[in-house]
């Protein structure tokens, strides 16, 4: 197969590495960028560059942050005694938009999956343990997805946190089985939080 | 071949049988089927009878292919092969020429159209013209019980065969069962991944990780075990009378043989059972880690059957095994019919060999007035007589023969 000029091949290759983009999709994106004015390509390049320099994980909770602490950890009006544990920042923002929770969060960065080589070491679990042991925390609510992996992660955390002397609860299962929290609507998430049970 | 291929778009369109007078039978049934480029069937349409249908033809003419196509369109998979690409009658180099089967199912709650299309490395299911998010969505509107010549080994083959039979019927009967089954196997795979690694070192880490997956495994496992126990108890109750109707002479007893023994008291709740499974998992952890896998649990369940007080897995003629398997399938259809709003369709591929004329006739008279049934045979007379059937069709080289055979 004939190759495009090198700068195009180069960008295609970068696009194809992104999730959900194949060769065809990458070609469409490149064609689009070539056909629009230079400004748009610059804005895209700038936004990409800023993404990695301006966003870092919050040192306390692991959420996307623009400085040391994310906006939630930095907000004195939040109830720091209650931590809601989520798999990723997208789930965190789903809870935030539901407006049902005024505590703080902890982002694990995934769920346990021995099959895919995701062990506790790969997840932000040490950080959670440290936070739970400070004495400021009274309740940890585990809001991992209602999948087998999400449930197992909840059980694993409950074992670890039991020694830290905090109350551990799991969100209620009003959620569709096996679904991802990020796609749940605000009302469902609110009910799931209200329906939490101790584990 | 070319002219048939050109006819395929017509066969591909959703069948329309709404102009037909609806049957007095309020059960759901296949009202019309259109098959296209499926194995040796280039293009075929059929409006089967609501009751007992017979497809006759010589060997290799496409009888079983048609049954397979019906099964595929109702449940989204073949009962013969896992390599469904094999079902595609490739016509030339054009990959877009897919095999497809479209079925209109008439149900008391209204008609529903299933279309399943196969291509190179792809399978798509459509319900009422809309792409189904997953194949299991088809189960909501259709159910099938199948008897194939292989089923003669149902009770003397490996336990996996009996679990597959159980799971197939129970998944069709209940979406909760299907969900539990999927969760169970996911948890099992995760646990086995930990245990396999634990075999080669790092034991304490592995323990904590395996333990994390024990509660979801126990929960799903308890739900499976209780469903299986209940289902087999119901089946046992009906099996005796059905077997007798088919000309069986000795007593037939069926029972659940769970890998984890439990007392099936009426009051046993899923939560109680899950708790006791969890205890067993913890107790057995060291042994499981030594073996590098979980050696007990619902994935090792079995079904026992006794004929005249003797374990049928160890004796019995070909004919006895066939008659028992047939009785079990008839009861399975009966239970599905009772348990849900969508009545199952019964598919019996070559049920008659090794049975004497009297028993074949007994099976067929038993099928009358029940769920819609599809039977294959070389001719109607071989199975009894044509008057037992509501519809007899002859298939020849993948096409309907000019005149309906056997009438
Ligand atoms: Zn934070």
> What's the overall geometry of chain A?
elongated
Stretches with pLDDT under 50, minimum 5 residues of chain B: 1-24, 403-407
Shape label of chain B: globular
**What's the rounded overall pLDDT mean of chain A?**
90
- Which two chains share the most extensive interface? A-B, 17 and 21 residues
- Cα(first) to Cα(last) distance of chain A is 58 Å
Structural class of chain B: alpha/beta
The DSSP helix count of chain B reads: 10
Observed structural traits:
heterodimer; A: Helicase, Ruva Protein, domain 3; Dna Topoisomerase Vi A Subunit, Chain: A, domain 2; five-stranded mixed β-sheet; 7 helices; B: 407 residues; alpha/beta; six-stranded antiparallel β-sheet; disordered N terminus; binds zinc ion
The gist of it:
The complex is a heterodimer of chains A (199) and B (407). Chain A is of the alpha/beta class and 199 residues long.
Question: What's the topology here?
Answer:
The complex is a heterodimer of chains A (about 200) and B (about 400).
Chain A: H1 6-16, H2 23-35, H3 38-54, E1 56-57, E2 64-65, E3 79-86, H4 89-98, E4 103-107, H5 125-133, E5 139-142, H6 148-162, E6 167-170, H7 186-194, E7 197-198
Parallel strand pairs in A: 3-4, 3-5, 5-6
Antiparallel strand pairs in A: 1-2, 6-7
Helix pairs in contact in A: 1-2, 4-7
Chain B: H1 2-12, E1 29-38, E2 41-46, E3 52-56, H2 63-75, E4 99-106, E5 112-119, E6 122-127, E7 130-131, E8 144-147, H3 159-173, H4 175-199, H5 203-245, E9 252-257, H6 270-283, H7 285-291, E10 302-307, E11 310-311, H8 318-339, E12 345-348, H9 357-367, E13 373-377, H10 380-383, E14 391-396, E15 399-400
Parallel strand pairs in B: 3-13, 3-14, 8-12, 12-13
Antiparallel strand pairs in B: 1-2, 1-4, 4-5, 5-6, 6-7, 9-10, 10-11, 14-15
The structure holds zinc ion.
């Amino acid at each position: 197969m004939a190759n495009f000029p090198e700068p195009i091949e180069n960008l295609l290759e970068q696009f194809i590495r992104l999730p959900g983009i194949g060769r065809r999709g990458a070609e469409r994106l490149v064609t689009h960028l070539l056909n629009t004015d230079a400004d748009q390509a610059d804005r895209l390049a700038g936004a990409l560059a800023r993404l990695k320099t301006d966003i870092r994980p919050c040192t306390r909770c692991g959420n996307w942050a623009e400085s040391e602490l994310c906006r939630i950890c930095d907000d004195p009006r939040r109830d720091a005694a209650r931590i809601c544990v989520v798999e990723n920042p997208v789930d965190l923002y789903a809870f935030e938009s539901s407006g049902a929770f005024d505590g703080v969060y902890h982002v694990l960065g995934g769920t346990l999956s021995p099959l895919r080589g995701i062990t506790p070491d790969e997840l932000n679990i040490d950080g959670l343990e440290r936070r739970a042991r400070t004495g400021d925390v009274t309740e940890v609510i585990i809001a991992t997805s209602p999948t087998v992996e999400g449930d197992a992660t909840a059980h694993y955390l409950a074992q670890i946190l039991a020694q830290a002397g905090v109350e551990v609860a799991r969100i209620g299962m009003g959620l569709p089985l096996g679904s991802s929290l990020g796609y749940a609507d605000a009302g469902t998430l609110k009910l799931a939080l209200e329906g939490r049970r101790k584990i | 071949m070319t002219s048939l291929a050109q006819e395929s778009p017509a066969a591909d369109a959703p069948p329309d049988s709404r102009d037909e007078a609806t049957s007095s039978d309020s059960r759901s049934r296949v009202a019309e089927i259109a098959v296209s480029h499926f194995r040796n069937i280039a293009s075929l349409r059929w409006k089967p009878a609501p009751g007992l249908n017979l497809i006759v033809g010589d060997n290799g003419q496409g009888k079983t292919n048609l049954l397979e196509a019906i099964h595929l369109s109702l449940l989204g998979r073949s009962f013969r092969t896992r390599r469904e690409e094999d079902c595609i009658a490739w016509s030339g180099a054009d990959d877009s020429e897919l095999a497809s089967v479209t079925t209109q199912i008439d149900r008391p709650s209204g008609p529903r159209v299933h279309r399943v299309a196969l291509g190179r490395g792809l399978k798509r299911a459509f319900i009422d013209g809309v792409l189904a998010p997953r194949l299991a969505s088809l189960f909501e509107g259709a159910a099938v019980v199948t008897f194939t010549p292989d089923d003669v080994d149902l009770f003397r083959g490996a336990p996996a065969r009996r679990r597959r039979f159980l799971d197939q019927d129970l998944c069709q009967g209940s979406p909760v069962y299907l969900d539990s089954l999927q969760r169970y196997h996911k948890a099992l795979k995760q646990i086995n991944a930990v245990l396999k690694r634990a075999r080669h070192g790092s034991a304490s880490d592995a323990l904590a990780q395996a333990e994390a997956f024990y509660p979801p495994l126990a929960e799903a496992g308890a739900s499976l075990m209780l469903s299986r126990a209940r289902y087999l108890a119901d089946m046992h109750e009906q099996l005796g009378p059905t077997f007798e109707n088919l000309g069986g002479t000795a007593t037939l007893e069926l029972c659940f043989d769970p890998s984890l023994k439990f007392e099936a008291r009426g009051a046993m709740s899923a939560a109680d059972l899950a708790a006791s499974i969890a205890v067993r998992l913890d107790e057995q952890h060291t042994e499981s880690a030594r073996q590098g896998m979980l050696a007990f649990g619902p994935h090792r369940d079995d079904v026992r059957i006794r004929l005249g007080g003797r374990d049928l897995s160890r004796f019995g003629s070909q004919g006895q095994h066939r008659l028992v398997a047939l009785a079990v399938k008839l009861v399975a259809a009966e239970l599905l019919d009772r348990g849900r709003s969508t009545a199952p369709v019964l598919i019996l591929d070559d049920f008659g060999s090794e049975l004497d004329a009297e028993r074949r006739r007994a099976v067929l008279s038993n099928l009358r007035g029940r769920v819609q049934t599809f039977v294959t045979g070389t001719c109607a007379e071989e199975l009894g007589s044509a008057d037992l059937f509501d519809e007899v069709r002859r298939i020849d080289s993948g096409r309907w023969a000019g005149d309906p055979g056997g009438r």
